[in-house]
Amino acid sequence: MRRMLVATLALTAVAACGGGSSSPTSPSPSPSGNALTITVTQQNGAQSFSPNPASFGGQMVVFRNADSIVHRVVLNDGSIDTGDIAAGATSRAVQMPAAGANYHCSLHPAMVGAVNPMAGGPPPVCEGIYCARDH
User: Fold this and answer.
1) Selection from 52, 128, 37, 124 nearest residue 89 by Cα
2) Would you say the C-alpha torsion 81, 86, 91, 97 has a positive or negative sign?
3) Which of 39, 40, 53, 99 fits 114 for a cystine, CB–CB 3.0-4.6 Å?
């Protein structure tokens, strides 16, 4: 009887830890929470980010580096800087301006992107050296 009780407790412990259990488990929360993702794809001007432009004005955003080299995303006005994002890594979540914004990779300035305003419409006009240009 004692062996049967020990065996039953052992099986219960295994099932509670997921071994042999057929019930679904909840996914782990992502480190970025509910932030939307802009993917850094490659060094290719305005095609360096996806989506671009992104309709994420006023929302929390992370930049996921799908390229094989380090990138660093900075809003053109300098108000947001993700810091270096290693290949395969994701930046911390940042709040995009509600009015939209233009951004670039500070390590590769020809990589440019934009976020549309929260109210819709196109991103703000890009002025200065970090704007889409032909290369």
Assistant:
1) 37
2) positive
3) 53
Domain that holds residue 118: 33-135
Which of 33, 34, 97, 32 shows the shortest CA–CA distance to 63? Answer: 32
pTM, two decimals, is 0.74
Would the pLDDT of 9 be above 80?
no
**How far is it, in rounded angstroms, from Cα 82 to Cα 64?**
11
CATH of the domain at 65: 2.60.40.420
CA distance 135 to 132: 9
Task: Count how many domains the chain has.
Answer: 1
pLDDT, tens digit, for every residue of 61-92?
A: 999 999 999 999 999 999 999 999 999 999 99
